[in-house]
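Q: How do we represent a protein-ligand complex in a form that can be generated token by token?
A: Start from the inputs.
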Amino acid sequence: MHVVDGRNGSPSVDRTGGTFSGRVWGDAVLPAAAGVTINSVVFEPGARTNWHRHERGQVLCVSSGAGLVCSRGGSPVPVRPGDVVFFEPGEEHWHGAGAGTLLVHLAISLGTTEWLEPVSDRSAGAAA
Ligand code: MN
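Then emit the structure tokens for the protein with manganese (II) ion bound:
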């Protein structure tokens, strides 16, 4: 058994940089077993992923805070605790926190992830 301790809001690994904009923390819950990767991810206010796609799709379970999810060609959609999001295989998208809120979600990623370019502030703010 492995408990990812969320009680102190203290995820263990700083994932800032690379495929994210802003400060992002994450814990590997289940690292790449049988093509399934599960991460608990905390986005600080304003932080978000780059555009990316998952080979066989992805499920996000929002557990705390508030944030945005967005598919290529669409507008950002607000998400909050209790929401469950599914991205189709190959669907280009991003996810992240709101401007003034944290976002905590469990990400269940299926297959490989292909990372693309950063999301522009204009694109990220399209819902505001
Ligand atoms: Mn994703």
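The pocket of manganese (II) ion is lined by residues 52, 54, 58, 87, 93, 95 (CB under 6 Å). The first strand starts at residue 13 and ends at 14.
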